[in-house]
Amino acid sequence: MLAMTDERHTTRVPILMHICCAPDATVPVLRLRAKGYEPIGFFYDPNIHPKGEYELRLDQARKLSCIEHFELIEGPYDPQRWLAATREFWNEPEGGLRCPRCFGVLLDAAAHKAADLGISVFTTTLLISPHKDVHVLEQVGREKGALYGVSFLPEAFRKQDGF
Hints:
alpha/beta, 5 helices
């Protein structure tokens, strides 16, 4: 297992932290560090349209990584992957049948990236949103982690004023 050392020479366990937008990553970075992890950001969200909006969100994630001193890996901008996975559920409302498919696209990419990097655990900043079903996120995260041999950490970032 990889380990990273911060400026106080304490060993932290690396965790790949899927990021969909910078504001949702602020609390998770701090909470993960408090639990002994060293977050490695993975910005990936092919659900962001148009590309200009995607680039704005990516730029904010870059700024947050500089402020909070964590590595940021940029995933590909591939809206066609998201569109293909969710096509039959486009008319569903937020929280509807499209969500598990969307989560699947995002968490599959994150679990795959964690495995590629030799990082044994991953999580997502989606867990901070009160608009996302944490039980569905946990189920999808565990399934995708199992596919790639990594563990999903279903941290309840929204609790204790996290959102």
